[in-house]
Prior knowledge:
By secondary structure, the protein is α/β, with parallel strands linked by helices. Helices cover 44% and strands 16% of the residues.
Amino acid sequence: xxxxxxxxxxxxxxxxxxxxxxxxxxxxxxxxxxxxxxxxxxxxxxxxxxxxxxxxxxxxxxxxxxxxxxxxxxxxxxxxxxxxxxxxxxxxxxxxxxxxxxxxxxxxxxxxxxxxxxxxxxxxxxxxxxxxxxxxxxxxxxxxxxxxxxxxxxxxxxxxxxxxxxxxxxxxxxxxxxxxxxxxxxxxxxxxxxxxxxxxxxxxxxxxxxxxxxxxxxxxxxxxxxxxxxxxxxxxxxxxxxxxxxxxxxxxxxxxxxxxxxxxxxxxxxxxxxxxxxxxxxxxxxxxxxxxxxxxxxxxxxxxxxxxxxxxxxxxxxxxxxxxxxxxxxxxxxxxxxxxxxxxx
Length: 345
């Protein structure tokens, strides 16, 4: 920060309303860009943008051919930053992800050669095809935003986001993501099949040309970092914080679940809610923000018990039942918090 209260030319003392206008304008440009490729899925695009601004990682899980890789690539290409794609295969090594130290015969010293994880946006295609050993190479990267190779730690530049895809149907040659890995993804989304009108529009626009090749960046890494700073100022009242803790705590006490959500899940849910509120033009979080994000943020972390599985209840059904039992706090939606009460969650 310089003497004028600016960070890299960004006025840190600007009014929150001006900050939010900037954020919604930039998000609108990214959304329009992505929707040129992914048509008819506004909720999925919004979820991806929420995770980006909340400094999280996104898991896209769906059947083949619905646009999982297209979504991740279009979001990455909309931002002028470093982008790397890792094709996860059974023979992929951890060093291919993190990097490796190679001995230089000329200098007689070891040199570090960065792996595919060294980028602002990392697209991991079919992550569940890699072995558990290779998947575990992502644990430190995703949580601590750093890589340790041969006792040397290398920090990853911000923004840093992993967008991974996986196919839940094809099981041959795949390895299920362990709980620790799933817990590091802030949200999981499914694209689903397009509606008829969107599929007809896709046939018209994708047969003559490839829309992904025509995408140009509409923002850059520096601007995304500014938007992330704006999101961090969004206010969360104590009542909403208690609501988050009550929802997550209910998953841990449910007899229908073998594994509930972790404290990391609470933090991810709150950060995602702050990003969603900012995208909606608010500098405060509402219980509605929490409710709309419960499924994408919590569902993939839960393990359903045997009895619930036999009775045909999945994680989504159990989660919906738990949400219905938690009282919704009464938060005045027309009031925003004073600047002195804003804090980073």
